Amino acid sequence: MLIKNLLKVSAFIITFLATTNTFADQATAMKIGCAGCHQMAVKTVGPAIKDIAKKHNGANIDDLVKLVKSGKNADQLTWGTIPMPPSPAPEADVKKVISWMLQQ
Fold first, then answer.
1. In this predicted structure, what is the pLDDT of residue 45?
2. Sign of CA dihedral 69, 32, 88, 52
3. Interior angle at CA 89, CA 31 and CA 95, nearest 5
4. Nearest Cα to Cα of residue 53 among 100, 90, 15
5. CATH code, domain with 90
6. Which of 66, 38, 69, 33 has the alpha carbon at shortest distance from 51?
7. How would you class 43 by CB atoms within 10 Å of its CB: exposed for 0-12, middle for 13-18, buried for 19 or more?
8. 43 has which bridge partners?
9. Which pTM was predicted?
10. CB 17 within 8 Å of CB 26
């Protein structure tokens, strides 16, 4: 089971790296934990980055940062049955990743 999970995580990371346009922002997404639940085009634990961009197109980035950082209004961060927990990452990193996600 552990090996199977490690293979899935490895495949996810390879896919994520191969489908990302901006290395620095992709690296930030991995560093702060976003890549653990979000892939570029495929729903995993969380929605695909492209789906996030579509849903939040035109949204105020600062409002999204506050939402992701606080974990409040969890219904806005729930797609399916798994809610997104509040992010412990620095606000500047969250903003960088959200800005990048919305451009996808």
1. 86
2. positive
3. 90
4. 100
5. 1.10.760.10
6. 38
7. middle
8. 38
9. 0.69
10. yes
What per-residue confidence (pLDDT) applies to 21? 47
Number of folded domains that form the chain: 1
Residue 75: partners with Cβ closer than 8 Å, 6 or more residues away: none
Q: Which domain holds residue 84?
A: 2-102
Q: What percentage of residues in the chain have a pLDDT greater than 90?
A: 22
Can you tell me the distance from the alpha carbon of 73 to that of 55, in angstroms, rounded to the nearest whole number?
16
Is 73 a residue whose pLDDT tops 70? no
Going from the C-alpha of 60 to that of each of 24, 25, 33, 41, 90, the distances in angstroms are 22, 19, 22, 23, 18
Could you give the residue ranges of the DSSP H alpha helices within 1-104?
2-18, 23-31, 49-55, 61-70, 91-102
Residue 94 structure tokens: 């969250």
Residues linked to residue 78 through DSSP beta bridges, in sequence order: 83
Q: Highest-confidence range of 12-26, 29-43, 60-74, by mean pLDDT?
A: 29-43
Token pair of 66 as six digits: 């506050």
